Amino acid sequence: MQYLLDYLAAAILGSALLLIMINANDTAAENQSVYNGEALVQEMLVQTASLLEGELRNMGVGVPETDKSILWADTTYIRFLYDVDRDGTVDTVSYFVGTTAEMLGTPNELDRPLYRRIDSGAPLMVGSVTGFALRYLTKLGALIPTPVSSAQLGEIHAVEVTMEIQNPYAMMRTDGTVAAGERTALYSSSLWQQTRLASQNMRR
Amino acid sequence: MSNHTLLTIGAFLILSTILLGFYQLLAATGDQLTDSQDLILATTISESYIELAQGLAFDQLTDTSNVAIGNPSALTTIDLLGRDGTGETSIPTFSDFDDFNRFTVEQIATGTNKRFTTTFRVYYVNPNDLSSVSTTQTFVKRLDLKTWRSYPPSASGASVDTVRISSVLGYFHFD
Question: What are the backbone dihedrals phi and psi of residue A177, each rounded to the nearest 5 degrees, phi first?
Fold first, then answer.
């Protein structure tokens, strides 16, 4: 009888152990995916932000003082002048976002391409974003309505860039784990917000 | 209590300890990633302030005159570094670099409920050694910023990382 009880107890405890290990393994795998996604997204964000902040800093370089350096300023579109390759010829640089329809190949339904175009060349995709917003401020910090009118382009003192990047490929969740109003996958997200001076624009 | 039972209890204690360590490790990794996101935001906020400060005049005096050229003692004295008048209440109203001295500001990161507090100190520094604070006026000022997430507060006992950045501005002219 004692042996029987021992076997029964061992079976119960063994099953409990097995369940605990399976659960821990699942948790580890899920967290690993999420953390990898977080790290990937932060890396993507830094790469895109580095390019953008470098270009915004150079806005107006090589532009004659009689000319404006910002040609068009809207919430998701900016076109400005600077000598990109330092060859003495001023180039027109544009940054703008595409539509979500252009990235239907990714599971994330919110991501869209961020494009950079030089002069009239073909737009080059420099990153994918889920949020991209530009705000324009005067010297006194007042917000300029967008799209900025031609008369106010010279008043732009600072450009505030807010950018959100989410993982294009995320860990899909089973139907049972998705509550009402939630998305079907866990998308890692990272936010970047910076104010850049357009001081060379102010001097025009 | 049989030996088997004792062995089983011991095994479970060991397993529980291992599992506890395992979940603590997972939680710590998650916290680190959250912190790194906060640090990205804190860095961008700090850089924004530096960008704004770099666009200001070197000194209240140099904003409107050139009498300080070749004469650093004409610049704002160390004890008066800071906001120059009652009108300078916020960063957009600042006119020169040292207006940031002893200023504290809190900003909400757009799209989040996180708040970041930044404190500023401005010093004159030795032009030959930018890490050395000068006790007299020089043609180089250094802005030291500290930015940290002030809301939501950290969990009890946990520390919040602070971003510390310094930026220098020199006064120069072309002959």
Answer: -95, 0
The closest CB to that of B44, out of A31, A39, A194, belongs to: A194
Q: Is the distance from CB of A173 to CB of A185 less than 8 angstroms?
A: yes
DSSP, res A187 = -
Cβ–Cβ below 8 Å for A31 and B29:
yes
Q: Which helix (H) or strand (E) holds A193?
A: strand A189-197
Give first-to-last CA distance, chain A, whole Å.
Answer: 97
Size of interface A-B (CB pairs under 8 A): 83
CA–CA separation, A9 vs A3, rounded Å? 10
User: Considering only alpha carbons, which residue of chain A is nearest residue B12?
Assistant: A17
- Is B40 touching A (CB cutoff 8 A)? yes
Instruction: List pLDDT tens digits, range B56-107.
Output: 899 988 877 777 778 888 899 999 999 988 788 888 889 899 999 999 999 9
Q: What is the pTM of this model?
A: 0.79
Distance from CA of B31 to the nearest CA of A (A): 10
Question: B11-26: per-residue pLDDT in tens?
Answer: 888 888 988 888 888 8
- The chain-wide mean pLDDT, for chain B, equals 87
Say yes or no: B92 contacts chain A, CB-CB below 8 A: yes
Residue with tokens 């860095």: B43
Say what the ipTM of the complex is. Answer: 0.71
Give the tokens for residue A29. 């795998």
Q: What is the pLDDT of residues A172-201, one digit of tens each?
A: 666 677 677 777 777 888 888 887 777 666
Name beta bridge partners: B168: B142
Q: Read off the DSSP letter of residue B139.
A: S
Report yes or no: B14 at the A interface, CB cutoff 8 Å: no
- Residue B174 identity: F
The reply to whether A141 touches chain B by the CB within 8 Å rule is: yes
What are the domain boundaries of chain A?
A: 2-202
Listed in sequence order, the residues at least 6 apart from B98 whose beta carbon sits closer than 8 Å to its beta carbon are B59, B60, B76, B81, B82, B122, B141
CA distance A120 to A122: 7
Distance CA B72, CA B136 (A): 9
Q: Where are the alpha helices (DSSP H) in chain B?
A: 3-54, 60-64
Residue A7, chain B, CB below 8 Å: the answer is no
Torsion of Cα atoms, A115 then A108 then A187 then A184, to 10°: 160
